[in-house]
Amino acid sequence: MANETKIKSLDAFFNPQSIAVIGVSRDPNKVGSVILSNTLQNQMGIKVYPVNPHLDEIMGLKCYPSVVDIPDKVDLAVISLPAIFVLDTIKECIRKETKAAIIVSAGFGETESGKELEIELKKTIKQSEMRVLGPNTLGILISGKLNTFFLPYDKSTTPPAGHIAFATQSGAMGHLLLERMAFYGVGTSAFIPVGNKIDVDENDLIEYFARDEKTKCIACYLESFAHGKNFFELCKKVSPKKPIVMLKTGSSKWGARAAASHTGALAGSNLVVEGALKQVGIARAQTEEELWDFANFLAYGKVLQGNRIAIITPAGGMGVTATDCIERTPNLTMAELSVSTKERIKTRIPPFASAGNPIDLTATSTPEMIDGVLEDLQKDNSVDGILMFSIPQPPLPVTDEQIEIVVKWARQGKPLVVGTIENRLTTECIRKYAREAVPVFPSIERAIKALQVSFERGEYLKSCQEGEKNKNET
Amino acid sequence: MKLDLKQIAETRAALAENEVKQLLQQYSLATPTFKLVERKEDLKGLNLPVALKVCSDKILHKTDVGGVKLNIGNQEELNTIFQQFRKKFPQEKFLAEEMAKPGVEIITGLLRDSTFGLSIMVGIGGILTELYQDATFRVIPIKRYDAEQMLTELKGRKLLEGFRGIKTDREAVINMLLSLSQLGEDLEDYIDQMDLNPVFIYERGLCVVDAKLILRRPPE
Questions:
Q1: Are residues A165 and A188 in contact, defined by beta-carbon separation less than 8 angstroms?
Q2: Do A329 and A425 share a structural domain?
C-alpha cells in the first residue's frame, strides 16, 4: 500500500459509519457484551451490528450469525473471540471487505503457543487491504465519539475531548493514565493501545495524529520499535510541527557485543535510544508520571523562548524550594527582575512582602495583587516564563476568582505553569485549571520539570529554524 | 592510495591500524606521523620518542597481547624492541609512530545499532570513561547542532569548555564529529563499529592516537 493510502485507511478506526461487534454474549459482563454496550454509547450515529451464530437478538438488536450476513457494509469489526477462532473470522471480514478490524483477543505472539497463529494471521492480513489493530489490545477511545473498550463504561471513566493523542504498547499502563486524565479532566483526542502490532503500529499512528487537527501533542508508551529507522525519519518530519512525548522502556542487546569496542560497551541499553530521540526533538519521559506531565504541558502550555523564570507565591517556603529546584535544573535560571518591575510590584504588595524573585505575596495575597503582579511580569523583558503557585489561603480554598485571573494571563500572556501541592484541599483547584486547559502540576518539582521541557522544546524549534535558514542560504 | 572498504569487507573482519588512520586522514582527521614497519631498515626516519605497536587486522586488543610499547627514546632501544616483537608476532607487521603530545582525552566512535542503524558516540576519555560512563550518542548523519548538543550533554563537558587553565579546541571536536559522521555516511554499509580512543584535544587542534574499525559484510 502506498503510504498516503496507508494512513488514510486508518480513518476506518477514527470515523467508522458501521461497526460489527463479533463475539457478543448473553452474559452482559462478558467482554464482547461490554464492548457492544460501550460501542452503542457512541454519539456519531454509527450503526452497530452484533455477531453471534447462537443468538437471534441482543440488547434489542438483531444478531447476525457471521459478519458476511450483515446486510450493510462494515467499516470496522471489533473481535473478541477466543484466539483459535480469530483467523477464520478475519478471513470473513476480508471477504466482507471490512475496512478495519480491532482484535481484542489475547493468546497470540505474547504467548509461546500463540506465536504460530500470529504469523498465520499476519500473512492473511498482508494479502488484504484491511487494517488491523492488535491482537491483544484493550480497544480504542476516540474522545466524544467512540469507545470500544472491554471495560464497562459505568465502571471506567474517560477524559473529555481534548488535544493529547495517546498511543500505547501497554493497554493497562495506558488505561491507568487515561483514568487519571479523566480524574482531573485533562482532555484527550484519541487513545489507541497497539497491542501486538501485527499491522497498525506506532509509526502509522504518529503519522495519523500528525495530520489530525484536534491533536496538539502525541504521547507514546513504547516497549519496542516496529521499524526504528522509519520511526526516526518520520519523527524528524513531525516534531517541528507537533510535539511528541515518549516513555520508552526495555533494553536492547548490546551486552553481547560489548567486548568488541569501547563504543559498543558504552552504548549500554539506553544511550543510543536517548540520543536518537533527542535528535528528532522528542521529549523523553523516564516515568509514567513524566509521560503524562510532559504531554499535558506540550498540549496545553506555551513554549519558552528563553530560560529566565519568575515565581509568584503566597508561601515563602514554596518560593525558596522552587528557587533551589530551578538552580539545580539544567538550562533554567531565576529571572532578575528589572528595577521598574520591582518598583511597580512594591506598590501592590504588603510592605513586608518580597518584590524580588521569588515574588512572595505572603498569606495576605489577594486576586488583585496576583492580577497586578502578573501584568507587571508581562512587561518585563527579563522574564521568559512564570511559575504561579496556587494554594489555599486559610480559611479559604483557592478561590474561583484567583483561578480566573491566572487562567486569563495563562491564555493571553507569557508561558505560565501553575504549581501546587496536591492534597484534599487542592485537588479541586487542579481540576479547575485542567478544565480550563491551563497546565497545572501537583508538586513543585513537577511544575519546574514541565518548564524545562518547555524550554527544550523552544530550543529544538529554534534549531529547526536555523537549519531551514542554512538550507535556504546554501 | 584510497582504501576500497567494500572489497576489504568481503574478505576481512577488521582493518589494521595503519589502514584506519589512513582512512581518518582522508577525512582530515589528524593522527601522529607513523610508518608501517616490516624490516629493521623501516625503523629510520621518525622523530623519537616513538611507540611501536603490532599492526594487524586480526589483533584488535594490542595491549592485551603485549603488542604495544610506548615512549621508546633511542634508536638502539627501538631496534631491540622491534626484534622482540618480530619473534613474538612472526606473521605480523608493525606500526612505528611518533609519540603524540598529551592532551585532554576523549573517546569517539561509530556503532551499528540494531534499531536505528549507524550511530556516532563521543565521551570523556581516559579512565573516566569507564568510571562515569560519560558518553552520548546520535544517529548519523548529524548536523552541527547535534554535535554541539552532544558535547553539552557530557558530564565532563567543562573539560571542553575551559576548566582550571585547561584549554581545549572545542571547535576541532565538533568538526571531528562532523567528519566522522560523513565517514560513517559514506561507508555505512561496511562499518560495524569504529573506535577512536584516545583522541587528544589540544588548545589548537587534536590528534587521534589509537583507532580501530570492525567491518561488516556488506549487504548483498
A1: yes
A2: yes
| Grid cell for residue B81 | 624492541
Q: Is B195 on the interface with A (CB under 8 A)?
A: yes
The CATH number that applies at residue A452 is 3.40.50.261
For residue A427, CA distances in Å to A163, A397, A398 come to: 22, 11, 10
* A238 and A312 together in one domain: no
Partner-chain contact B133 A252, CB within 8 Å: no
How many angstroms separate the CA atoms of B44 and A115, rounded? 66
pLDDT tens, B65-90? 999 999 999 999 999 999 999 999 99
Q: What is the CATH number of the domain that holds A132?
A: 3.40.50.720
User: Given A300, A317, A334, which residue is the final one in a domain?
Assistant: A300
Q: Do residues A292 and A315 both lie within one domain?
A: no
| Torsion angle of the four alpha carbons A349, A354, A357, A362, in this order, in degrees rounded to the nearest 10 | -70
Q: Is the CB of A279 less than 8 angstroms away from the CB of B117?
A: no
| CB of A278 less than 8 A from some CB of B | yes
Domain assignment of residue A315, yes or no:
yes
Domain membership of residue A66 (yes or no) is yes
Q: Are residues A393 and A283 in the same domain?
A: no
- Note whether A59 and A5 are same-domain residues: yes
| A6 and A68, same domain (yes or no) | yes
A264 contacts B111? CB cut-off 8 A: yes
ipTM of this model? 0.90
Domain that holds residue A214: 157-300
Cβ distance A276 to B194 less than 8 Å, yes or no, reads: no
**Cβ contacts (< 8 Å) between A262 and chain B: which residues?**
107, 109, 129, 195, 197
Nearest CB to B138 within list A260, A267, A275: A275
pLDDT tens figures, A192-219: 999 999 999 999 999 999 999 999 999 9
Q: How many domains does chain A have?
A: 3
pTM, rounded to two decimals: 0.93
Option in A232, A260, A466 nearest B145 (CB): A466
Are residues B123 and A278, on separate chains, in Cβ contact within 8 Å? no
Inter-chain CB proximity B119 and A257 less than 8 Å: no
Structural domains in chain B, sorted by start: 34-98 (3.30.1490.20), 102-215 (3.30.470.20)
- Backbone φ and ψ of B163, nearest 5°: -150, 120
A271 and B136 in contact by Cβ < 8 A?
A: yes
B125 touches chain A (CB under 8 A): no
Give per-residue burial for A179-212: e unless 16+ CB within 10 Å, then b. Answer: eebbebbbbbbbbbbbbbbbbbbbbbbbbbbbeb
- Please give the backbone phi and psi of residue B71, each rounded to the nearest 5 degrees, phi first: 55, 45
If you measure CA to CA, which chain A residue comes closest to B126?
A262
